[in-house]
Amino acid sequence: MQADPAVRDPDRVADAGTPLLEARDLVKHYQIRKGVLGRPVGTVHAVDGISFAIPRGKTVGLVGESGSGKSTAARLVSRLIEPTSGEVRFDGQDVLAMRGKEVKALRRRMQMVFQDPFGSLNPRLTVGDIVGEPLEVHRVASGRARTDRVVEVLETVGLSGRDLHKFPHQFSGGQAQRIGIARALATNPDLIICDEAVSALDVSVQAQVLNLLKRLQRELGLSYLFIAHDLNVVRYMADELCVMYMGEIVERGDGDAVFADPQHPYTQMLLAAIPGHDPVTARAQERGVATGEVPSASAPPSGCRFHTRCPAVFDRCPTEHPPLYDAGQPGRVAACHLLDEPRQVQRA
Amino acid sequence: MSSDVAGSPLAPVVPDQPRSGDRTPPTPSSSEAPPRRRGAAAAWAGLKRFIRTEKLGAVSLALITVFVVMAVFAPLLAPYDPLQQFRRNLTEAPSGTFWLGTDDLGRDVLSRLIYGARSSMIVSVVTTVVSLVLGTLIGVTSGFLGKRKDMVIQRLMDAIQSVPPLVLLLFLAVVLTPSMSSTIIALTIVITPSFNRVARAETMRIREETYIEAARATGSSSLRTMVKHVLPNMAAPMMTMASLLFAGVIIAESALSFLGIGTPPPTPSWGGMLSSGARYVELAPWMIIAPGLILSVAVFAFNLLGDALRDFFDPRLQR
Amino acid sequence: MIRYVLGRLVYGLVVLALVTVFVFVAITFIPSDAVDVMLADTGATEEQAAAMRSELGLDRPVWEQLGSFLGNAVQGDFGRSFYTDEPVVDLFLDRIPITLQLGGLALVIGTVLGLVLGIIAAVRRGTATDGAVRVTAVTFLSVPNFVLGLLILTALGLWFAWSPPFVYRGPTEDFVSWAQHMAIPAIALGTASMAGITRMTRSSLLENLGSQYIRTVRAKGAGERLVLFKHAMRNSVIAVLTLIGVDLATVLGGTVILEQMFSLPGTGQLVYQAVLDRDYPVVIACTIFYAGLFIVTMIIIDLLYAFIDPRIRAAREAGR
Predict the structure, then answer these.
(1) B307 within a domain of the structure (yes/no)
(2) Which residue windows are coiled coil (chain B) (predicted)?
(3) pLDDT digits over A25-50, tens only?
């Protein structure tokens, strides 16, 4: 097994220009059914038309409060959940058109790390069997070769061959998450989706796991879709940031730029909640802090979905749904009417 | 039941302090968490822990061993041929010659009791194993398929369970010619829905676990996920259920024999012995007391085992 | 609420229909049919047998038999006995009171004793009394009802030379005789439920008494008796009710064997005799009747839940 992603598989079109993963207008609606006949009585807009792209070897962060649809989005691109509509391209291939074997082949290149380190490990299997499962499933290696590869990835994540015959409950949370990462690495994937991968860990352990992920990215040329609600974590990891609110991306742009100068009031609100994050705290004080509960996803507010909580709400907000406006710098967009208005409105 | 249960396979995990960076194998804080081994070794270790932590469970295992020995070595243990009729010793009270007396045809009650364990154990073991496999298969498939198919399968199971067991057994007795295999088939039809119910509930629970999603994300097929991830995680409740239903099968088998539609005479069976004893209640009470007691003790042993298994596997009772 | 009840009824009918289908599919596996059994000793010719089959409709395919059965069943006709030619419905309705008396008595005995013993064990948890109650419960859970019936008969016969009446007399006709006749089988049938309910009451009471909610009630200064009966008990009743539902099937089945043993002319005896006689119409219809009886009782128990627990009621009225 070699580390260089370009050399790994000569069949792959290593076109550095196109992004590794591209999602366009992804939608997932759930019907709420009622009664014996299952009449649909409502629709939950879990994910409502989001688009983003993950460049090769880069990390795209997806942030938002719980229920914003970020985990659903992750499951849509990996086809763990079938989207209602939209388009997903992985390395140029149409993911949503894939069937049985192709989906399986896709999973080999697109692995996932989950939030609950213990919950994602079958308590009745040994570490060797857990990490070796993808190898068996994809018939990459069996027997001796499988064990060798398992030991190799275990060592890559900071565990050792001595852990092969242990069970998950014999490890600490951080170690368990390393096992989960080792499993994701086993088949040498191109993309790893980290769904709140460090949220369940203690802060000091979080840092270790994040550093491990960064190191792996450098050494193996991995791309990450990094989902978290903790902005500090995302800031550390992400090259590009997508902020989600109620199933929609409300702001997107270069990670550092977004942190330095958030354009959407929702992003500002999230950043204001981080202690000591000055640029926003100042602005939030100036404007007042967003309040209130997240509205129900089955009855999203009209117009801008954030208008019920937004401190800067004005007449256009409840009636007109904001598109993603250009936000100055290249690649930066935000769905807020303020960007479309003359400056004085914003100051009012 | 006793609640002083220590380390079991389901012992809740207490994440230790933030020290995940270190590579040294974690030393378990309590002495109760031996490195788990695989296959037979793991089973043996589990059995030893079960006996140590569940005193009543150990008692039940001892009793069950006695019944199994009786069933397997009946020809060696029984003092007489269970079918031999001692014409001059009809309904004779227990004595040095006939330890538990003789029945109305002059047959030795003790020998019939020992041989009776055979039919009882064979019927119960085969029925329980077959129903366990069938019920698990149906329950897991149904729970995994979900939606319409699940609905149809479960209503069918409801239908079978809505007929009281003994009435259903009587009905099936009309359909099948009396024989040991018919008894097994009938009992299997009656018991399978119960296993299905537990297996389905467990499947629904396990299906929501993250490791199932993780398996799918790895690319594991449905079949593989079922075999590798779902089944092993429902073993504990299924074993408990099997033990309790085993007790029920023993009762049902003897009830059928008692009614004369189970194990056909002259093959000795506990139910059949009770049935002939019922005609001599005052004249030869030993004909009732002996099989009645042994039947009850057998049922008791499996009920006790079921209780002990439930405690053993109950994560809430862990210390 | 009305919609919920209707939903339950529809579900019950579906299950009952499935039972009927199951029964008719099963009888196709019968190796020799009723006519062979009936005519076995009469030396009847094959032609006579064939004539009889066609008269009874046995020569038609199963689905046709099922269809005509369902068609007639809707009009209240569930077939006639091969032997007495009486409608099965009449046979069943004539005898069901005895079975219901026996089963009802058994459930009442089991529930009352079980609740009392369970409460005693829970209140005196950890004491010798608790231990004794629990051992008693496990023991009675293990003695099959017909064995218990036999053992009681044996004991009474040996020590008091007493045996129950042979001929059944209704409670209005001769109450003493009725009570003597019913007592032992009802006790034998009820003890298993008693054992189960004792265990359930005890464990569920202990669980509830340790709960946050009960601690709050105690902290408010409520007396121990009030805590036990008004608050903890209410929660335990649900668990016990579920158990009674489960026991119901066992008790209904148990009546078959105990009616036989104590010569009580109930429906259990009817089915058993019909099985021995291979009187198919009676066996078929009775199997379905028993299922109906069970389903109806389960629906009643379901509704009782909603009555007892407002949360269940609210959830159901909100439409499940």
Answers:
(1) yes
(2) none
(3) 888 888 877 655 566 777 888 888 88
Pair of tokens at residue B281: 């209640």
Q: What DSSP line would sit under B302-319, residue for residue? A: HHHHHHHHHHHH-GGGB-
Q: Report how far residue B303's alpha carbon sits from residue C140's, in angstroms, rounded to the nearest whole number.
A: 11
Q: Name every chain B residue with its beta carbon within 8 A of the beta carbon of A165.
A: 35, 37-38
pTM for the whole thing? 0.81
Which residues in chain B have their CB less than 8 angstroms from residue C256's CB? 166-167, 170, 259
Closest listed residue to residue B102, CA positions, set B76, B81, B71, B75: B81
Q: How many CB pairs under 8 A join A and B?
A: 114
The parent domain of residue B252 ranges over: 53-81+108-317
Cβ atoms of B60 and B84 closer than 8 Å: no
pLDDT at A13 over 60: no
* Contact between A34 and C7 using a beta-carbon 8 Å cutoff: no
What single-letter amino acid sits at C292? G
- The whole-angstrom separation of Cα A218 and Cα A212 is 10
Please report the pLDDT score of residue C37 as a whole number. Answer: 63
Most confident of A254-268, B170-184, C92-106: C92-106
Q: Is residue B46 part of a domain?
A: no
- Chain A residues with CB inside 8 Å of B37's CB? 165
B255 and chain C in contact, CB less than 8 A: yes
Distance CA A106, CA C146 (A): 63
**pLDDT(B30) > 70:** no
- Domain range list for chain A: 14-255
Token pair of B261, please? 């539609």
**Residues from chain C contacting residue A35 (CB–CB below 8 Å):** 319
Q: How far is C280 from chain B (nearest CA, A)?
A: 8
B residues 192-231 lying closer than 8 A (beta carbon) to A: 209-211, 213-221, 224, 228-229
Which pLDDT band, with edges at 50, 70 and 90, does C40 fall under?
low
The answer to ipTM > 0.95 is: no
Tell whether B166 is covered by a domain.
yes
Q: Do A36 and C319 touch (CB under 8 A)?
A: no
- Residue in A with minimal Cα distance to C4: A35
Contact B143, B196 (CB under 8 A): no
On whether the CB atoms of residues A194 and A238 are closer than 8 A, the answer is: no
**Number of Cα atoms under 13 Å in the Cβ half of residue B149:** 10
CB contact, 8 Å: A35 with chain C?
A: yes
Q: Give C307→chain A minimum CA distance, Å.
A: 21
Structural domains in chain C, CATH included, are 95-207+236-289 (1.10.3720.10)
Going by C-alpha positions, the residue among A280, A255, C29, C143 that lies closest to residue B301 is C143
Collect all residues of chain A within an 8 Å Cβ-Cβ radius of residue B229.
122, 125
Query: Looking at the domain assignment, is residue B243 inside a domain?
Result: yes
Write out residues 256-285 of B within 8 Å (CB-CB) of C.
258-259, 261, 274, 277-278, 281-282, 285
pLDDT at B318: 46
User: What's the CATH class of domain A14-255?
Assistant: alpha beta
Q: Closest chain A residue to B35 measured between Cα atoms?
A: A166
Chain A to chain C, count of Cβ pairs less than 8 Å apart? 4
Q: Which of A36, A37, A41 to mutate to test the interface with C (most CBs of C within 10 A)?
A: A36
Amino acid at A71: S
Range list of H helices, chain A: 5-8, 70-77, 100-109, 127-137, 143-156, 173-185, 203-220, 231-237, 255-260, 265-272, 278-287, 343-347
User: What angle do the packed helices C280-308 and C233-261 form, to 10 degrees?
Assistant: 160
CATH code at position B203: 1.10.3720.10
Q: Which two tokens stand for residue B137?
A: 């298969």
CA-based max dimension of chain C: 86
- For residue A14, the SS3 value is coil
